[in-house]
Amino acid sequence: MRPKVIAHRGASHLAPENTLTAFRLAASLGVDGIEFDTLLTADGHLVVHHEYITDLHADQKKVIPWCTLEQLRALDFGSWKDPRFAGEKIPTFAEALEACSTVETIQVEFKSPLGANNTTDQDAFAELILEEVESSGLADKIVVTSFNHGILSRVKKLSPCQRVGVLTLNSLDSYLFPPPALLQAIGLENSMEAGLPGEAEATQALMALSQGQPLDEENITARWVMDRIWALTSDHPGENLFQLLLSLLAQHDLPAYLAGLDFVPEVVSCQYNTCFRDRDLVQRVQAMGMEAAPWPVDSKLDLQSILDMQPVSIVTNRPERLLHMLDPAYTLPPEAQAILA
């Protein structure tokens, strides 16, 4: 059966990721779903962006949880990709949902509040998530996803019918694998298509560049590593380094890890390399009644390998490529061509 095509951060290969243009473009391509990330601002608004820092995707270097919505709205989130996207603003959660409203599934990754503790703050965040989702009128399309499985547990307890998706990593070093914008900044932009050896090389280069350098606005690599540390510690609040590593190690036997959760997720979004370590993983997860949705699968070889595993969904930065692989007659629809013109 044909898998659902989920556009990772929108049509992020063709347009600036996590922007309204990327979402509208993805919808016009004919995807089944769209994935995007949310963060909480200093004044309590949910905005759409992946990293806690704006360094890679805006014209100024800011920390989103320390900024107000008004401050973030003054930034340009499009020019980094191409001058024709100049002036693109950071979307709010509500704006992103409206842009994605025509697709079947909307996977929303809720980033843990920066510095939140593992009780009161996370309880409040789970309540906020449900308030935003339920007031959107699109709750039946939304899958609440997170690397913070404690927040997902809280969401499920408060609203058992709300669909949730567990996000999991392949390994700790994969969490430090730099995104395309940073690869370009450090001169390794071609490693994305090179597969695992290229990823390892890029991660090593990133760590080497960041070592011994101050965390200031000029050192983008050190700031990005700091961002990843913030993300890990926010997703695993109250855990020391040893406990955090044990938590991640437990996910290597993913079916056993899922069976031990105190809630049952509808979706399991594992980093796609995990599926190559255990080629039966997709079918084992789906035999448990959960949808497998590997992310983010982009190269033709990886896409074909994942297709052979028959997951319910595939999350990709290249939805146009996957749609063409599924139907060789596929071409960019006129609506998509108009957006890119």
Description:
The protein starts with a strand and ends with a helix. About 6% of the residues have low confidence. Strands 1, 2, 3, 4, 5, 6, 7, 8 and 9 form a 9-stranded mixed sheet that branches. The protein is built from 16 helices and 9 strands. The radius of gyration is 19 Å and the shape is globular. It has 341 residues and is α/β, with parallel strands linked by helices.
In short:
With 341 residues, the chain is α/β, with parallel strands linked by helices. The protein has helices spanning 20-29, 69-73, 93-100, 120-135, 149-158, 172-175, 180-185, 196-210, 220-235, 241-250, 254-259, 273-277, 281-287, 300-308, 319-326, 334-340, and strands spanning 4-8, 33-40, 46-48, 105-110, 142-146, 164-168, 267-270, 291-292, 313-316. 47% of the residues are buried.
Portion of residues in beta strands equals 5-15%
Class from secondary-structure proportions: alpha/beta
Number of helices: 16
Query: What is the 3D shape?
Result: globular
Q: Got a strand count? A: 9
Sheet with the most strands? Answer: 9 strands, mixed
Question: Could you give the distance between the termini?
Answer: 34 Å
Order of helices and strands: EHEEHHEHEHEHHHHHHEHHEHEHH
Low-confidence stretches: 191-203, 209-215
Provide the residue-averaged pLDDT. 89
**Helix percentage:** 40-55%
Radius of gyration: 19 Å
List keywords for this structure.
single chain; 341 residues; alpha/beta; nine-stranded mixed sheet; 16 helices; 9 strands; 42% helix; 12% strand; globular
Fold blueprint:
Layout: E1 4-8, H1 20-29, E2 33-40, E3 46-48, H2 69-73, H3 93-100, E4 105-110, H4 120-135, E5 142-146, H5 149-158, E6 164-168, H6 172-175, H7 180-185, H8 196-210, H9 220-235, H10 241-250, H11 254-259, E7 267-270, H12 273-277, H13 281-287, E8 291-292, H14 300-308, E9 313-316, H15 319-326, H16 334-340
Parallel strand pairs: 1-2, 1-9, 2-4, 4-5, 5-6, 6-7, 7-8
Antiparallel strand pairs: 2-3
Helix pairs in contact: 1-3, 1-16, 4-5, 8-9
